[in-house]
Amino acid sequence: VFLMSQAVARQMVKQHDGVIVNVSSESGLEGSEGQSCYAATKAALNSFTRSWSKELGKHGIRVVGIAPGILEQTGLRTPEYEEALAWTRNITVEQLREGYTKNAIPIGRAGRLAEVADFVCYLLSERASYITGVT
Fold first, then answer.
1. Which fold, 1-69+114-135?
2. Which of the following is catalytic: 38, 100, 122, 130?
3. pTM of the model
């Protein structure tokens, strides 16, 4: 993230315009049992987002983050990943899956990838031109 942000920021500074959207995680905001290293890296990304928004804002560049939380099954959440995560929490995979939606998500379902993409498109648009430095 840091190296990519540096690369695109150079061009954005020249054109005095641009938006960087960093993809964090709910774990980086609240912590996550069994995922302390992952949560720590995402918390660092959130701090990076806030800091860079202050550094780049004077150049007309906005830096924002998103923290989607639990999403529908993707290629990243494999059965092996779920087994390992359930093991760290001393529960079954079924309990893990049930807990995802019943206990962690007020609306009772995982997010859809299209919903995240739509939100990123909004953040990139002029309609969000005042939003910067937040995740």
1. Rossmann fold (3.40.50)
2. 38
3. 0.83
